[in-house]
Amino acid sequence: MGTPDAVPDRPVPHTLAPGRLGAAAIAFFALAVTAPIAVLITVVPAAYATGGGPLVPLSFLVLGVVLILFATGYAAMANRSPFAGAMSTYVTRGLGRPAGVGAAWLALGSYQVLQLGLYGLVGAAAAPLLGSWFGVSAEWWVVAAGCWLLVALCGTIRIEVSSGLIALLVLTEAAVAAGFATANALDPGAGGLTAGTILPSGPELDRPALGLLLAVGMLAFVGFEATGAYAEEAIRPRRDAGRAAVVTVAVFAVLLAGTSWSLSAAAGADRITELARTRGSELLFDLAGARLAPWAVTLGRLLLLTGLIAAILGLHHALSRHLFALGRERVLPSRWGRTSRRTLAPRAASLAQSAVTALLLAGAAAVGVPDAPLIGRRLMIAGSLGVLILVLVTSVATLLHLNRVPDGEGAFTRFVAPALATVALGSIAYLVVRDLAFLLGVPGSSPWRWIVPVSLAAVASIGVLHALILRAARPVVYAGIGQGGVPVVVTPAAPRPLSPAPPPSRPRPSSPEPGAHRPERVHR
Predict the structure, then answer these.
(1) DSSP 405
(2) Distances (CA, A) of 219 to 386, 439, 496
(3) Are 25 and 307 in contact (CB under 8 A)?
(4) What is the rounded CA–CA span in Å between residue 70 and residue 390?
(5) E strand spans, 244-312
């Protein structure tokens, strides 16, 4: 007896599961991608190493304001186009279909590079736990393979199940980070809590260092923009994704500012720069170990590992939905635009993303990456730069579209917020590119300083070329780009005649014979 899945005339759905995620659940997905504890052990020490001192927590708050300005216009675009393509759809609406496909390619490439970087960090995060618990050591790719298997399995299940797991991991991660911050604040370093940990004491930071500080801090927020990919699965598709973006930025900015300030308070305002340069990624655990029991530090290391897995899973879901959106519009293979009949998850796109990641990880293991954590950090910086450029292009597209096609938004939402965000994001993107050598940890003369931005530009250019090829070869597919799978009817133009024919003359009605209606008068 056949199963329901074997019925040949049952249509394969092309829509994601509607009404399964609220704004809070979407925000948890985005917070998972930002990986709070991973940021605290990588980005925050790098920010203090620049000599920023008390400006480090303040910079996170300033960057949070900038991104909330961006999220204001982002929410308006999500209200108009609640599709899984998210930013590529918004770029299509504002800058045209070629730019939209270029943005989609840039998003896929940047998220994939970010995910590979996180896989490189997983091995380093698991090493202390494996050594202390089991007395064994494992190659980074062995740990990465185990994480890949878990992510591949979770990518095909119901989205509400994954959201519950993500929410649990993120809440635990944030609670531990807040606990470390509280311990640091209650037991400050020499001199206690001074104004030097909150406000700068003088002009000790020059402009290049301030720009570097903003560049470092901006990369910490990458991931908040992933909320738009879940709009079709939201309870309120036109509202929840935008609200989740604002909530994600606000919560993450406050968490980073408070925790980074607590590190300065625990180390002392006069010693934090030196400690950040010497201890690096161990700064958070060193300060916690001096104030808490050893099991608390072990718990923090465990949550670093689970936080990285949650970030990889969040990126996997975002990538799967981007592939699904492009497959549904037939920009990429149409089979990727289908969902499972039982779970309505983008199973084909999820399996494709898992297969690509497996090939890349296998290639890295076969080559023999010498320092996986270092390569992982560099990949994360490269991917973060790609996402930053994508956010900047989306801001420009938002500004143009909302003002070209107004639909009830106020002047602040339509013009002021997107304009300010565009200027600020453009300035920060310039600072990141300028200081890219420092961020990558390479000499200023290293070719990687220009290889990374040129590679990102090449990926976006391939996407633009892809769109132009579709316009020439498959105009119907091209017309459907950015429409979220809505059927598009293209009416061909009527052929024009070679020589215009004269308009047909209307026959003039013959005048009736006088008196024809009175025969007696005609024939008399």
Answers:
(1) S
(2) 10, 10, 56
(3) no
(4) 12
(5) none
Residue 391 contacts residue 424 (beta carbons within 8 Å): no
200: phi > 0 → left, psi -120 to 50 → alpha, else beta; which? beta
CA distances from 60 to 54, 63, 185, 466, 473 (A): 11, 5, 18, 38, 47
H-only helix segments in 329-442: 347-367, 372-404, 411, 417-434, 436-440
Helix (H) or strand (E) holding 61: helix 55-80
CA–CA dist 101, 103 (Å, integer): 5
Q: Which residue has the tokens 């990518």?
A: 155
List CB contacts of 205: < 8 A, sequence separation 6 or more.
51, 52, 53, 55, 213
Tokens of 434: 């300028």
Residues with Cβ within 8 Å of 25's Cβ and at least 6 positions away in sequence, in order, are 160, 163, 167
Instruction: Write the CB contacts of 18 (distance below 8 Å, at least 6 apart in sequence).
Output: 232, 233, 237
To which residue do tokens 């340069």 refer? 277
**Total Cβ atoms within 10 A of residue 105:** 24
Contact status, residue 162 vs residue 154, Cβ threshold 8 Å: yes
Residue type, 304: L
Q: Which two tokens stand for residue 70?
A: 């961006």
Rounded Cα–Cα distance for residues 495 and 186 (Å):
81
* Nearest C-alpha neighbor of 337 from the set 11, 13, 89: 13
List the end-to-end C-alpha distance of the chain, in Å, as a whole number: 95
User: Each residue's pLDDT tens digit in the chain (524 positions)?
Assistant: 444 444 334 444 668 889 999 999 999 999 999 988 888 888 888 888 887 788 889 899 999 999 999 999 999 999 999 999 999 999 999 999 999 999 999 999 999 999 999 999 998 888 888 877 877 888 889 999 999 999 999 999 999 999 999 999 999 999 999 999 999 998 887 766 776 667 666 555 556 667 778 888 888 899 999 999 999 999 999 999 999 999 999 999 999 999 999 998 888 888 888 899 898 888 999 999 888 999 999 999 999 999 999 999 999 999 999 999 999 999 999 999 999 888 889 999 999 999 999 999 999 999 988 888 899 999 999 999 999 999 999 999 999 999 999 888 899 999 999 999 999 999 999 999 998 998 898 898 889 899 999 999 999 999 999 999 999 999 999 999 988 877 666 566 666 666 665 666 665 555 555 554 544 444 44
Enter the pTM of the model: 0.88
